[in-house]
Amino acid sequence: MHTILSISNLSKTYASGFRALHNINLDIQRSEIFALLGSNGAGKTTLISIICGIVNPSKGRVIVDGYDIVTNYRAARSTIGLLPQELTTDTFESVWRTVSFSRGLFGKPANPVYIEKVLKELSLWDKKDNKIRTLSGGMKRRVMIAKALSHEPRILFLDEPTAGVDVELRRDMWRLVRSLRDSGVTIILTTHYIDEAEEMADRIGVIRNGEIILVDHKTELMRKLGKKQLTLQLHMALQSVPKKLAVYGLELARGGNELIYTYDEHAEHANIIELLRALDDENIVFKDLQTTQSSLEDIFVNLIERCHELPRKEAT
């Protein structure tokens, strides 16, 4: 696949000495949806701000569609659309003029047909003549998306795009995101709704304390880090797990009325059969069983918890 965004050895340390990013290396492919996950303060917004030319890097390089974000800023920035977390627009202008003006800022010639298409896709067409200040919060968010798309960017950054928005807007947005991806636009999003990343993203990146700790295809991430659990509802409660069953790492739950067996996604099916035979040998009878699989949120939380146990590197 063609790399449209390449980040090499990128770091950012502020004058205060705070190190926001450290040695970020990341390649984003054309026409993929890439989800960047991380806790508050992990460095997501700083990274996006540097790529979009809002914040200067301390060191490193960012190449956007062949253009260096520092030495060829205008060309690089013209390929990028950004939906920031904050609502920032002229409240006294109409929707149409606001979106059209944003297109002009990037030197694009007027294209009423394209602007109309964007507004209709975002359910804004009937509001095109309304002043921004008269719109609801959800409608203002739609206008911000339209502004980000106004100059037909090849890369679209969505920084917490669905935070605080209604279900209808969230549905419309993801429908639009899929259509943009299908038309060749690369989508990079940050979100606190990890279920959305699980549904939408092709690849997942996890950032912690300004460092990328993991990047992988979503399916591979689920395969390699996902776990399954077999929960057995017992006929009679146990006080403890019999010693002969210790090899299976079983956990007692619900006052001894459930046994939980956690195993790897690709564990041999024979392991479960052996467990069931061992239970029978111990005269442990179960009345029901069910299996559950790790979600992306489970994987993310476990990764962050494990990383919190590691010391953070000092800024250099």
TrEMBL record:
It comes from the Bacteria. InterPro entries: AAA+_ATPase (IPR003593), ABC_transporter-like_ATP-bd (IPR003439), ABC_transporter-like_CS (IPR017871), ABC_transporter_ATP-binding (IPR050763). The keyword Nucleotide-binding applies. Transmembrane segments: none annotated. The keyword Nucleotide-binding applies. Residues 5-234 form the ABC transporter domain. Pfam families: ABC_tran. This is Uncharacterized ABC transporter ATP-binding protein YadG. The lineage of its organism: Bacteria, Pseudomonadati, Pseudomonadota, Betaproteobacteria, Burkholderiales.
